Amino acid sequence: MAKSTFTAKHRRLSGILRDLRVNAGFRQADLAKVLRQHQSFVSKYESGERSLDLIELQSICGALGVSLHRLIDLFQDDAQ
Predict the structure, then answer these.
(1) pLDDT single digits (tens) 14-51
(2) Which of 2, 43, 54, 71 is the most buried (most CB within 10 A)?
């Protein structure tokens, strides 16, 4: 059985990242291409199968035209 890293906080972060991607007009494959990753990279972090480190978050934010600070603000706002 695969271990899920999907806590409520992970679900919230994944949801925010997914919403940012969709709002930017990217499909998973589009974002993956910009990131020089496979589409499964995006799919796995959006589904909770994979966690992200700070460097990866920064790259994703950059590709989506969102600052890391904005991502953190969205994450904190969503928690309230």
Answers:
(1) 999 999 999 999 999 999 999 999 999 999 999 988 99
(2) 71
